[in-house]
Specification:
Helices cover 70% and strands 0% of the residues. It has helices at 10-26, 30-46, 55-69, 71-85, 91-104. Helix 1 (10-26) runs antiparallel to helix 2 and helix 3 packs antiparallel against helix 4.
Amino acid sequence: MAKKNSSIDSETIEKILSELKEMEVMCTNDRLTLKIQKLIKTVNNAANWSEEISVEDIIHKKMKESAKKNPDLNLKLYMLYRDLSDGRISEEKAKELYETYIQMYPDDIMIY
């Protein structure tokens, strides 16, 4: 059997994993549950998929969300994102700074 060189998009992988996890929760048969868990691991490994979201992705997402609501926070997160993506700071330092910026510049600033 010939192997095809095709890739599956991340949305399809998410759907497959979601269905497998739902089946795992609903399943009462222990042997079947183990098989489903193996399938979930296999899909994750085959797609080089990680359930954890990287620090860089978290910062980027929050940066995009704050663009219109909080320009000061957006600027700080942009600088942090660039420093992390360029390798100027570690992920641990980025996490610390992210938490600090979120506390310093809350999203729900009320203007009177």
